[in-house]
């Protein structure tokens, strides 16, 4: 089942339906009752709706949804099968942003809800927050401390091992010589964190650490892609757990995008490395000497590693708690796989925005394929390896209006389809129709296969679908992939116009 969150609505779409069109099997309507209060506060009428910003599975039978509710964020539980409300509403503050343009992430892990968003009407208090657990205390990041969070834009959250990881971009506190520079981060908290002692970090995380993600092109002068746009869940690359992300250049730099991968053990290595500190407001940021790091090591989970003797974080020594409060930033950045991007794109004036990955593509399920959405509505299809990358331009979806940005990509491997979310619609794109193009591998031109067809897309909107295979591949590779990289013949999506950032989740 595919669940799509929109303005005032949630749609449930059956993935097994034979129709090419997206026809909701269930529809939930959740409208705000606070429109008058919202407009009195001086907010634009377009924001005085209920934008569903959180839609995650709470368990096998329940969906947890939160909406902006006209600047009064609220959360509810819904039954997956019927989309009927289950229980009472709960306050959405710190779990859901106040307005649709604010970033947020959320997931359930071990019965607790982990969220990252803004907690106030003015969007001045960013937080990574844990709540709704039966036995775990409510915890958050330290308020108004730029060493912890500085104007973050939250992108993704992952449960992995003993931790929950948060991926985001923020203003770099350690790099201020050129004004506000954005860095991408990965932060980590322990799932068994119970907060600090009554003296230090009570009701705050005792395990919060963060490190920079280094997505750059090596050379005499490194070229950095510093701004994280999208990230996958943990998948296997070279038989090792890893994540892949889309990164772009700074807003005031030349336009560029890249896809970088990061091994999870390299992320762990960064968190086990040296801490970074600034001794005073005028000094540079430098590594903390190892002899100055207290024991148990700050950032460890209670009962694990150097903190194995401690049953709870509430019993950590004050030295450890004070150190982690003042030193959440790690010195070393997390290197990307092979110390270079999988794919770069610097010749287009439009940046990449979204990413979906199929790690078992092709007839032998031994290829990794990337699907990349962009600001101008394109979706690129790329065959990737850790050694080289070859591009497959895939659909170009021309949604009428100014906002053509691809907001979400969800891959339905079982039914061989890709769902593409825009601000006003969701598109279902079949991945291959190559049966009529089996001879393409015998052509010797630069473009060995090309087909362009058009299909109706909501009123007079047109979808231009392009698929071609370049001759940079060997005959064997083309033989294996011709049935996978096909020509999309039709793309006739239809869903109710919902001018907001759509959220799509596969369950």
Count of beta strands: 35
Q: How are the strands of the largest sheet arranged? A: 26-27-28-29-34-33
Structural class: mainly beta
Helix proportion:
under 10%
Low-confidence parts lasting 5 or more residues at pLDDT below 50? 386-397, 433-499
Strand content: 35-45%
Query: What is the C-alpha radius of gyration, as a whole number of Å?
Result: 24 Å
Mean pLDDT: 83
Distance between the termini: 5 Å
Q: What gross morphology would you assign?
A: globular
Helix count equals 4
Identify the quaternary structure here.
single chain
The profile of the biggest β sheet is:
6 strands, antiparallel
GO cellular component, one term: plasma membrane
Domain Sema: 1-431
Protein name: Semaphorin 6Cb
Keywords: Glycoprotein
Question: What's the helix and strand layout?
Answer:
Layout: E1 2-5, E2 9-13, E3 24-29, H1 35-40, E4 52-57, E5 62-67, E6 74-79, E7 90-91, E8 105-109, E9 112-118, E10 126-131, E11 139-140, E12 153-160, E13 163-171, E14 182-190, E15 209-214, E16 216-217, E17 223-224, E18 227-231, E19 235-237, E20 240-248, E21 257-263, H2 264-271, E22 276-278, E23 285-287, H3 318-326, E24 334-335, E25 343-345, E26 352-361, E27 367-374, E28 378-384, E29 389-398, E30 408-412, E31 417-421, E32 426-430, E33 451-457, E34 461-467, H4 475-481, E35 503-506
Parallel strand pairs: 15-24
Antiparallel strand pairs: 1-2, 1-35, 2-3, 4-5, 5-6, 6-7, 8-9, 9-10, 10-11, 12-13, 13-14, 14-15, 16-17, 18-20, 19-20, 20-21, 21-25, 22-23, 26-27, 27-28, 28-29, 29-34, 30-31, 31-32, 33-34
Protein name: Semaphorin 6Cb
InterPro entries: Semap_dom (IPR001627), Semap_dom_sf (IPR036352), Semaphorin (IPR027231), WD40/YVTN_repeat-like_dom_sf (IPR015943)
Keywords: Glycoprotein
């Amino acid at each position: 089942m595919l669940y799509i969150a929109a303005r005032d609505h949630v749609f449930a779409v059956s993935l097994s339906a034979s129709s090419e069109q997206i026809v909701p099997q269930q529809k939930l309507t959740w409208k705000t009752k606070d429109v008058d209060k919202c407009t009195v506060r001086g907010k634009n009428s377009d924001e005085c709706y209920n934008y569903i910003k959180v839609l995650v599975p709470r368990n096998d039978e329940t969906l947890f949804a939160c909406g902006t509710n006209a600047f009064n964020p609220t959360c509810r539980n819904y039954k997956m099968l019927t989309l009927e409300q289950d229980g009472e509403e709960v306050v959405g503050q710190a779990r859901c942003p106040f307005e649709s343009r604010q970033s947020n992430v959320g997931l359930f892990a071990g019965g607790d809800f982990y969220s990252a968003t803004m907690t106030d009407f003015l969007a001045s208090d960013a937080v990574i927050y844990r709540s709704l657990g039966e036995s775990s205390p409510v915890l958050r990041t330290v308020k108004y401390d730029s060493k912890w969070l500085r104007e973050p834009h939250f992108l993704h959250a992952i449960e992995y091992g003993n931790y929950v990881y948060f991926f985001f971009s923020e203003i770099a506190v350690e790099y201020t010589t050129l004004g506000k520079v954005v860095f991408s981060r990965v932060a980590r908290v322990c799932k068994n964190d119970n907060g600090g002692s009554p003296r230090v970090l009570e009701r705050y995380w005792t395990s919060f650490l963060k490190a920079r993600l280094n997505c750059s092109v090596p050379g005499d002068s490194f070229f950095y892609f510093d701004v994280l746009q999208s990230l996958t869940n943990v998948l296997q690359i070279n038989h090792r757990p890893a994540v892949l992300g889309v990164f772009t250049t700074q807003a005031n730099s030349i336009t560029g995008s890249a896809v970088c991968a990061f091994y999870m053990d390299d992320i762990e290595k960064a968190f086990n490395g040296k801490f970074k500190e600034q001794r005073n407001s005028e000094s540079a940021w430098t590594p903390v000497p190892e002899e100055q790091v207290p024991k148990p090591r700050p950032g460890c989970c209670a009962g694990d590693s150097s903190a194995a003797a401690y049953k709870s974080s509430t019993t950590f020594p004050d030295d450890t708690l004070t150190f982690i409060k003042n030193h959440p930033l790690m010195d070393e950045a997390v290197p990307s796989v092979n110390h270079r991007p999988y794919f770069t794109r610097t010749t287009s004036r439009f940046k990449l925005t979204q990413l979906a990955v199929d790690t078992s593509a092709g007839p032998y399920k031994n290829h990794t394929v990337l699907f990349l959405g962009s600001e101008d509505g394109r979706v690129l299809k790329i065959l990737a390896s850790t050694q080289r990358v070859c591009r497959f331009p895939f659909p170009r979806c021309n949604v009428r209006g100014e906002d053509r940005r691809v907001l979400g990509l969800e891959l339905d491997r079982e039914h061989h389809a890709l769902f593409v979310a825009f601000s006003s619609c969701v598109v279902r794109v079949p991945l291959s129709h190559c049966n009529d193009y089996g001879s393409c591998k015998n052509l010797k031109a630069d473009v060995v296969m090309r087909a362009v067809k058009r299909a109706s897309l909501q009123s007079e909107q047109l979808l231009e679908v392009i698929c071609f295979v370049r001759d940079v591949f060997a005959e064997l590779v083309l033989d294996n992939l011709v049935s996978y990289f096909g020509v999309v013949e039709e793309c006739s999506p239809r869903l109710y116009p919902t001018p907001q950032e759509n959220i799509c989740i596969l369950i």
